[in-house]
Design goal:
- By secondary structure, this protein is α+β, with helices and mostly antiparallel strands.
- It has one domain: Clavaminate synthase-like (Double-stranded beta-helix), CATH 3.60.130.10.
- Helix content is about 25%, strand content about 20%.
- Strands 1, 2, 3, 4, 6, 14 and 17 form a seven-stranded mixed β-sheet that branches.
- A hairpin with a 6-residue loop joins strand 11 and strand 12.
- The longest helix is centred in the first third of the chain and has 17 residues.
- The radius of gyration is 20 Å and the shape is globular.
- The N and C termini lie far apart (about 50 Å).
- GO terms for molecular function: 2-oxoglutarate-dependent dioxygenase activity.
- InterPro entries: AlphaKG_dependent_hydroxylases, TauD-like_sf, TauD/TfdA-like.
- Its cofactor is Fe(2+).
- Keywords: Oxidoreductase.
- This is TauD/TfdA-like domain-containing protein.
Length: about 375
């Protein structure tokens, strides 16, 4: 589908309308600029020797008892000495900067299957895993398997090369690096509330556009009865209901689908401006083997730099990925129901519906092994 031509920002400079009064600056620890954090390291935490010992002991016990990691519930991966650690991670994700890196897991003596079980056990301490594709993947490998980007059905985690800034269909994204590339492949993150504030300051006219509806492709993973695309704003809510869900690629993919209205000049300029600001204000993070990253998708955009990979298939850059619903998630604006399902705080939500009808690893918090005390902690 042919899209409307973009207009140079200077053409609108003399007539930019003021933002409506409801648009107020986002405040809090989740508002940050990458260049300011680049010289800091307090967003990196290291597992202690005692914590590593407890994690590996839990891995050995769970491995001996379960043949399939997907059957492992929260209490099955018993790590009482790390509960304070994981509560702190959850607080940082929802009330702090919105992201966290945990470093120092020793993986040299672990197989890929061991790594998956270990990451699953850690993820279950934070939330409940979600289906990440129509194939029903609950724990995905982020690895180049030859898929080509730019197609209406392509998925970025199965392709090589750099990735644009985007968010995923979950409250919290988790990544575990188990193999590094020859070079590159660094993670880049940006604070979406900070981008919102910059738009409010410099381009309130575009912020007003971004708080209106855009059409996004479902990338060939629509459930029965669903359209191939859905509609929602890019920015919505404020204060503790603020959320931003962004994917320039999925917006462009939707333009190739029959029945999707063409982007207006203002919409195209707004999307390009968000992508430019994310690039300008981002933080680059080098992922090492054994690193864990967690992002709150409501306040963090993420991307990836280009990389040179190993030629051998068994040495290729590989990350493990979890999409998590978390018990202390925020209430979402109603406009995000087509993307997340429930907008209630602390709900099981997000994920992609599998043909079996499954969207979550477990049907509810109790079945996943969360007690009332766990949910209240």
């Amino acid at each position: 589908m042919t899209t409307a031509a973009s207009t140079h920002p200077a053409a609108h400079a003399a007539s930019r309308p003021a933002a409506p009064p409801a648009f107020t600056p986002a405040t809090g620890a989740h508002v940050w600029l990458g260049p300011q954090l680049a010289s800091q390291t307090d967003w990196i935490d290291h597992f202690t020797a005692a914590e590593i010992k407890e994690l590996l002991s839990a891995l050995a016990r769970t491995k001996a008892k379960f043949g399939d990691f997907q059957a492992v519930r929260r209490q099955d991966f018993d790590v009482p000495g790390l509960q304070a650690r994981f509560r702190a991670v959850r607080r940082q994700l929802e009330q702090g900067r919105g992201f966290m890196m945990l470093r120092g897991l020793p993986l040299d003596d672990l197989s890929d299957a061991d790594c998956k079980l270990l990451f699953w056990g850690i993820g279950m301490q934070l939330g409940v895993p979600l289906c990440q594709s129509a194939r029903g993947e609950l724990l995905a490998e982020v690895k180049d398997v030859g898929e080509k980007m730019g197609q209406s059905t392509s998925r970025a985690y199965r392709a090589a090369g750099p990735l644009r800034f985007h968010t995923d269909q979950c409250d919290v994204l988790g990544l575990m690096c188990i193999r590094e590339p020859v070079s590159g492949g660094h993670s880049r993150i940006a604070s979406s509330p900070a981008l919102h504030n910059e738009l409010l300051r410099s381009r309130p006219d575009l912020l007003a556009v971004l708080r209106q509806d855009f059409n996004f492709s479902r990338q060939g993973e629509a459930a029965a009865g669903e359209q191939a695309w859905y509609t929602r704003p890019i920015f919505a809510g404020q204060d503790d209901t603020f959320t931003s869900v962004f994917s320039q690629s999925h917006i462009e993919s939707a333009q190739k689908l029959d029945g999707v209205p063409c982007l207006t000049d203002a919409q195209r300029e707004a999307v390009e401006t968000v992508a430019r600001l994310a690039d300008q204000h981002s933080l680059t993070v080098e992922l090492r083997r054994g690193d864990l990253q967690f992002f709150n998708n409501h306040v963090i955009y993420h991307s990836r730099t280009d990389y040179q990979d190993h030629a051998e298939a068994d040495r290729k850059r590989t990350l493990l990925r979890l999409w998590l619903a978390v018990p202390d998630s925020r209430r979402l604006p109603d406009a995000f129901a087509p993307f997340y399902g429930s907008t209630a705080p602390g709900a099981l939500r997000g994920g992609i519906l599998h043909a079996s009808g499954r969207r979550y690893a477990f049907p509810d918090w109790e079945a996943a092994g969360w007690t009332a005390a766990d949910l209240a902690a």
